[in-house]
Amino acid sequence: MEGKIIMRTILAFILIGSTIAAFAQRTEDTTRQNKTIHISKLEIGKKKKEVFTGRDSSLIVRIDTLIMNDRSQLVFYGKKDVALHVAHAEIGKRAYIFGTDGKNNGTDFDIDMRLEKLGALYVLAGGHDANNNGSRTFPNGNGGRVNFTYDSTGIVPQTGDKKASHYLQIDTRAGGYRVNPQNDLNNIYSLINLGVRGRPLGNLAQGTVYSGSPGRDGKSTVKARE
Fold first, then answer.
1. Helix or strand run (H / E) with residue 21
2. CA 83: distance to chain centroid?
3. CA–CA separation, 116 and 87 (whole Å)
4. Contact at 8 Å (CB) between 95 and 119?
5. Does 27 have pLDDT greater than 60?
6. Does the reported pTM lie above 0.85?
C-alpha cells in the first residue's frame, strides 16, 4: 500500500513538472511571436490613430494592406527598433508615422512599402527636448535612423515639394536645439497624442530645455527596392 502511495506521489510530481515546463515553453514562444505582428488589413480613419506599445523594445510589423486616411497617425511608443513592411499602402494627406523609445530618443525605422496612393507622409523619428515628464527625466534625445524603401512599380515618393502630391518627409533631428527652424514639424509633434492614461504624447516631447548639449542627429535614406 505504501509503495502505491509513493508511486502516485512520484507520478504526480512528474506530471506537475511536465505541465510547468510546457507552460514555460508556451510562454517563451508567445513572447517571441509577440515581437512579430502580421495584420491582413489596417485602416486608420481620418484624424484617428493606431498605437503600438508593449514591453518589447523591438518590433516587426507586416501589413498586407495599410490605409491611412488624412491626418491619421501610426504611433510606435517605447520602441527602439521597428521594421514595418507593407505590401499595399494607400496614404492620404498629411499622414504620420511616429516613433519614440519613451526616453526622448527617436525610433530606428526600417520601412519597406509599395505605395498605391500617396498624398503626403511624414515619418517622425526625431529626438525630443529634455524635460520633466512628471516622474522621470531624460537628456536631450537622439534622432532615429530611418531607411525608407519603396517599390518602384508603385508610386515613387518625392521629397522636394511638400505642396505637391506624393510627398515624403523624414525627420531625424536631435532634441535640444534651442533654435529650431522647423516650426511646422514642432507643431506636428505637438498634435500627436499617445492616448494612454489621458496624457498627450506631445507632453513627453516638449518642454523647457534644462540640460546641456543637443542629442545626436539621426540619418535617413530613401531608395527603390532592389
1. helix 2-34
2. 9
3. 10
4. yes
5. no
6. no
